[in-house]
Amino acid sequence: MGNSAATGHVVAASNVHQAVGLKRTLQLLMKQHRIEPWTVHDLGHSNPLAKLRRQADLCTVSPFRFIPVKEGLSHFSKHAGGWVVQLTREKFIELSIELFDKKGLKHPIEEAKIFYDVFDSIDMYSDATLSIGELVGGLSTFFAGTLDERSKAVYDVLDQSASDKVSKSLLSQFLKPYVWSLVPGSAEVFRPILLPYVTDEIFGEMSSTPSKGHVNSSEFARWVQRGNPNAEHLKASNTAPVFSAAIFERCAQIIEGVVHAAWKEYRGKEELREYGQQTWEAGHEGQPQRLQDVGMYRYAVSNYGRSPQRSMQNCDEQPSEQPSLVRDMVSNMSIHVQGAMENFRKTPEGTPRNHEQQPGMVSNMSQQVQDAMKYFNAGGCQIPMNVADDWESDCEADAIDRSEQMQSVIAHTQEHGTRAPLPNLLKVHASTIAPPLASLPTTACGLTRPQGFPEFETATRATTAF
């Protein structure tokens, strides 16, 4: 999967950035696709600031300045934002002429040419098609009205149900063209990942109570006012502020902040790893360094008293001290086995005397075997493995907690548990007297029965008869 928006959509849909964190996700993609941070001024010919300046120049001469902003956006909005009905470049010119004809306004050919220039200045994707965000965010600058009237007209287009509620998903559609245009093609994979982050940040700034899941018109207008502190001064000088300028500026601040922070942390780790590799190669004849899990390594050394390398070299040497959990568990199970064997030896028939103790003993030993399996599956006694990436978390505390819990369970079993005889799982014959040798067949399975000892058999029959 390459550096494309499709890859970014897959990463965003899998919620990897939520599981490992946004910074970590960006760092992994930076390493994989060799992406470096950027600024808005580094975007070159696709720089959205150039289109904003073009909008500021055109809004003073465009014929749209004679149309109220609410009426103008309402006329165009029904033709944008869908898959079937799309607002193309030629459709935009046709709707513009239709709007002026409906208002009874004349539009000379020279002024009608400006419609093409207006479309190109708000086409952030440069694909000759306008999305709902490009239309309402860009075209609102060209119509007549104050900043509050523009904010209200934009909000009404987003709130198609007229419920005074704009959800986070609708806000994301509105912000999408601005985020896309602020991320260069060399970092295209970042676009679908950064869009939810930027939306969450701006949604939190707009909504007084983000938990309610939507913003109302007053909250939207207040956020726009905060982004245009010089609106009144521009109005006094008969200069209309570019409505989308504040949106671009805030999106750029959020994107540059998180990307540069992730890059700084990533480069710090890379420089530290490179230094460690260089110093290792200098002292080991150019051999690459193999990093180990520090937490598991220290746990193994503290419990077994030697390192994994020493264990591999001295395979016949036994560890100086076994883990206390294993030692206690083996000792406790040995006590139960010895007690069972004693009861087994006391009974000639080899069957347990007290059958009521069988379930308790089986349950007790089964619980201990399960605890032992849990302990070994948890990795407490495993040999540490070699890793080749970042440092992993220390698991020594978890292993110690498991050991303490197991010791408490074993102590409780030794104090309150009762010894029970070993259950007999073999079928016991009704007669305990061995059959005489003469009763066996002469030949079986290619073998011949021995003649036996007549004196011993005669004595056995005599004893049995009495």
- Let me know the number of strands: 6
Mean pLDDT: 74
List unreliable stretches of 5+ residues.
Answer: 306-323, 347-359, 379-397
- Counting helices, strands and paired strands, the structural category is mainly alpha
Distance between the termini: 92 Å
Can you describe what's shown?
Mean pLDDT is 74; it is low at 306-323, 347-359 and 379-397. The chain contains 21 helices and 6 strands. It is 59% helix and 3% strand. The longest helix is centred in the middle third of the chain and has 39 residues, at 245-283. It is mostly helical. The protein folds into 2 domains: 5-262, no CATH class; 333-383 and 396-416, no CATH class.
What distinguishing features does this structure have?
single chain; 2 domains; two-stranded antiparallel ribbon; 21 helices; 3% strand
